[in-house]
Write a structure and sequence with these properties.
With about 140 residues, this protein is mainly beta. About 5% of the residues lie in helices and about 45% in strands. It is built from 1 helix and 9 strands; from the N terminus they run αβββββββββ.
Length: about 140
Amino acid sequence: YKLLINKTVDEAAPGGGAALFASGSFVSNEHATSGDVRLFRLADGRYVLRLERLDTSNGPVLKVWLSDATVRDGKAGWHVFATGQHVDLGRLQGNKGSQNYPIPQGVDVTRFASVTIWCDRFHVSFGAAALNATG
């Protein structure tokens, strides 16, 4: 199944019915980064990560990671995601705007505390957001 990047999760999810599970806002690390992160649980039990109003620099080999690392602002957060556990959700679809990333089945989202825009080439976080459970 494929979610379109320009649609909300409810519009793109088969049968609709997405519930907000966790959310957060980006802080800047190596590059100025802003926007919001929302993790949705779909009616069928799958999860989708949505980046909303993302604004960051373009860069080489940018990825979206779910991570167990604690978010730190500024230079202190550049490398905190290089160790620990993460799930690679794929290449960043665009450095500006809103976009959806399906979470692979079998991933326990409760094990992950943050999201980073990770530059694979230079091993640095452009920006990151702590995930705060909604309920």
